[in-house]
Amino acid sequence: MIPFELAEPKSLAAAVKLLDPDDATVRPIAGGTALMLMMKAGVFRPARLVSLRKIEPKYSGITASADGLRIGAMTTLSALERSAEVRKHAPVITQTLLTLSNVRVRNVATVGGALAHGDPHMDLPPVLMALGATLTVTGPKGERKLAVEDLFSGYYETTLEKNELISEVHVPAQGAKRAAYMKVTTGSADDWPALGVAVVIETDGKAIKSARVVASAATAMATRLKSAEAVLNGKSVDDKLLRSAGDAAAEEAEYIADVRGSVPYKRELMRVYVRRAVRAALDGSGAH
Predict the structure, then answer these.
(1) Cβ distance 133 to 169 under 8 Å?
(2) DSSP per residue over 53-85, as a string?
(3) pLDDT per 10-residue tile (average), the chain, 288 residues
(4) Domains along the chain with CATH numbers
(5) What is the dihedral of CA 249, 252, 255, 260, to 10 degrees?
(6) 64: which of 8, 44, 85, 244 fits an S-S bond (Cβ 3.0–4.6 Å)?
C-alpha cells in the first residue's frame, strides 16, 4: 500500500468537515473490513482516510423505545448480534447475523459501514429494508432522513453524497409482524449468498394484511419485489398463492450472473426461496 494520511476526529461533525466531495481519494473508514481489502488489492489508493473510531460514543449504542430500535452507525455487527434489545424487538436481525460472514469480521465491521459500502451480497440491507428501517444521514447541511430502500442506486452504489455519513439506523416497532430471512450459499453457511430473501408479514386473521419482500445478492442491489407483495396482500395463504408469489418475484427481479451462479440458476432460486421465506415468516421459523 502507498502512504496516506490518517485523520482521527473526535466528533461526527469534525469528520464530515474532513471529507472532500471533490476528491475521490478521501474516504471515511469505520471497521475497514472492505476498504482495507480494496487497498491491499490496489483497487483503491487513498490520499486520506477519515477514521470514525474516536467520534462520540452515542454513535455506537443501541436503544429501544415504543417507536422501535435506534442503532448507532458505529455499532459493530457483533454488538448488534449480542444485543438483548435487538433480540427482543427484531429477532430476525439477531438470527441473520449468526451467518453473516464470520465472527472476526463481525467484531470489527459496523452497521453504517455495511450499508454505506453498497455491496449487494450483504445480508443486513435486505433485512432492514423489509423491516421498514430508515437512516439518519449527516452532512455539511445537517441531518436528513432516508429510507434504507432508497439508499441503494446500483451495483456498489448509494445515494449518499461524498461528504455525508450514516449516523443512525431506526428500525420501527414491529408489533405483531413476523419476519424471516433466507440465504442460499454455494459454500459454507457464512459465505456470500447467491441469493438472499427477507420477508416481513402482517396478518389479519388468516389473510395477509401486508407483505414486504426484498431480494439481494442475485440482483445488482437489494430490491423490493413489489409484484410479489401485490400477489400476497389481502390473500389467505395456500400453496397456490405461494407459487404465484414466487413466480411473480422470479419474473420481476433483474439478475446478475457471477461466480455464485448464472441468471437462470438465480431466477429459479428466487422462485423457490420467496415462497419458502414467506412460509418461514408465517410459521415463525425465522432466518435460515
Answers:
(1) yes
(2) TTS-GGGG-EEEETTEEEEETT-BHHHHHH-HH
(3) 88 97 93 85 89 96 97 97 97 95 90 95 96 98 98 96 97 95 91 96 94 97 98 96 98 96 97 97 76
(4) 5-51 (3.30.43.10), 57-172 (3.30.465.10), 178-283 (3.30.390.50)
(5) 10
(6) 85
